[in-house]
Specification:
Blueprint lengths: L1 E4 L2 E4 L1 E4 L3 H6 L2 H20 L3 E6 L4 E6 L21
Antiparallel strand pairs: 1-2, 3-5, 4-5
């Protein structure tokens, strides 16, 4: 997907319509601790690319926004997401 970065348009967002891991586990904590945080760290440490993964816990999608620093832990909405109730 295309977004605006510093006044210019860039194709820097990957939209995942359905995250199989999130859809299968139904667990916000597992999504954040086993996917979001390790993936962000890996891409930053290995390739020097900041990426902010933004899971959507309502429709089980996820966006990976390349070139965007993830918010601090205390400000990240994904880290404030409560666990799902039994489905």
């Amino acid at each position: 997907m295309e977004t605006e970065v510093e006044g210019r348009k860039e194709k820097n967002v990957v939209h995942i319509k359905k995250c199989r891991f999130l859809e299968t586990t139904h667990c916000a904590g597992m999504c954040v601790n086993m996917c979001k945080l390790p993936s962000q760290k890996f891409l930053k440490d290995s390739f020097g690319i900041p990426v902010n993964m933004v899971p959507n816990f309502e429709d089980m999608s996820c966006e990976m926004i390349f070139g965007q620093q993830p918010p601090a832990a205390m400000d990240d909405p994904a880290l404030k997401q409560p666990c799902y109730k039994s489905l």
